[in-house]
Write a structure and sequence with these properties.
With 107 residues, this protein is α+β, with helices and mostly antiparallel strands. The protein has a single domain, classed as SH3 type barrels (Roll). Helix content is 19%, strand content 37%. It is globular and about 35 Å long.
């Protein structure tokens, strides 16, 4: 299990794609990993400031919003099927969206 991989997980509202955003050492060894939830409905609008649009290049079947304003910690055993990995450019977009969504850019 590695940072930036896309898996499926049920966070309480059905199986959805999720992106691992843990530090690579945590993602590789720890029981809990940090993830971002993705909206599995088809994206039919522009992404909001706290979202990044992922698609088949990232292992998804259709354009899907990655929601960067809430980080979840889940047991690695809760992650299901691996879907793919986030592209390098979208990784940068996700990090920027996380920083802005949490207000870390004003510190």
């Amino acid at each position: 299990m590695n940072a930036w991989e896309v898996y499926e997980a049920d966070l309480g509202w059905g199986a959805h794609p999720v992106v691992i955003v843990s530090h690579p050492a945590r993602a590789a060894r720890k029981q809990f990993v940090e993830i971002l939830d993705c909206a599995s409905q088809r994206a039919d609008r522009p992404a909001r400031d706290h979202e990044v649009l992922l698609d088949d290049a990232d292992g998804l079947d259709w354009p899907t919003f990655c929601k960067c304003d809430c980080i979840y910690a889940v047991p690695r055993t809760e992650l299901g099927r691996r879907r793919g990995a986030v592209t390098y450019e979208r990784r940068r977009q996700i990090v920027r969206a996380m920083i802005a969504a949490h207000g870390w850019n004003v510190l």
